[in-house]
Amino acid sequence: MGKQGQRHSHVVGRGPGAITPDGCAVELWATLPPGDIPAIIEPALPPNARILDLGAGAGRLTHPLAAAGHHMTAVDESTEMLSRIQQAETICSTIESLRLDRKFDVVLLASHLVNVPDVAERNGILATCRHHVAEDGVVLIQRFTRRWAQEAGGSRYLGAGIECETTVEPRNSAGCDLVSVVARYSIGDRHWEQEYVACLLDDSDLSTDLNRARLQLDRWLSEDGRWVVAKPEG
Which of 137, 140, 149, 170 lies deepest, with the highest CB count within 10 Å? Predict the structure, then answer.
């Protein structure tokens, strides 16, 4: 079974093939389709936008957005993930340490990366978003909310032959709502498991974190509030 590195202490990933530092199976994520995410975020994207995809993985969102005519820069700390990406500039870096000398129309922070339980790491991620977004640009964020935690458990079919079984359990915490999540994926006779701790963020929680990074919550992109638009403070 593959194992991931130790930088992400709140995540454990298991299964065949390469496992990234944040517990993601490269083969699995290279297979996972984008689902309805491109349609959800499309209203917030200007035509032919310059998009910075943070934590891009194997290109789950990079590829459909590039195909739609956007100019993609994909960032990930896993060279194995980045090797699967085409039609985009790729940069191997942690999100917190990234500092490019250019701005983007859109900064994309998908995969619930904002829900990392360590406040300092979350601040660093959002500081990177603020550093790279143009003053008239937007940051698009996917998050776990309390509503998600109530509804996420159970089995789902994710497409491309991928079955997923998820359990979500509350953890004792001071100052924020932490949950322990176990996601078990299968494609035929291949199986992967990812265990992680997430900090649930509703509007008030996220607004507090965004304000520290000189960003402000603008609007929801999805009815359940899991996709939101943030803008630089005026």
Answer: 140
Total Cβ atoms within 10 A of residue 162 = 18
Domain segments of the chain: what residues?
32-144+201-232
Average pLDDT of adjacent 10-residue blocks, the chain of 234 residues = 50 95 95 98 98 98 98 97 97 98 98 95 97 98 96 97 97 80 97 96 96 98 97 91
Res 172: pLDDT: 72
How far is Cα 51 from Cα 88, in angstroms, rounded to an integer? 10
Q: Which tokens hold the place of 96?
A: 């917190």
Per-residue pLDDT at 226: 97
Q: Which DSSP string do the residues of 92-141 spell out, in sequence order?
A: E--TTT---SS-EEEEEE-TTGGG-S-HHHHHHHHHHHHHHEEEEEEEEE
CB 137 within 8 A of CB 51: no
Say how far apart CA 59 and CA 70 lie, in whole Å: 14
pLDDT of residue 10: 80
Q: Using an 8 Å Cβ cutoff, are 229 and 139 in contact?
A: yes
Here the tokens at position 191 are 């199986």
User: Under a CB-based contact definition with an 8 Å cutoff, are residues 155 and 165 in contact?
Assistant: yes
Residue 220 structure tokens: 């929801």
d(CA 54, CA 9): 20
**pLDDT for 1:** 32
DSSP annotation of 6: S
CB 86 within 8 A of CB 106: no
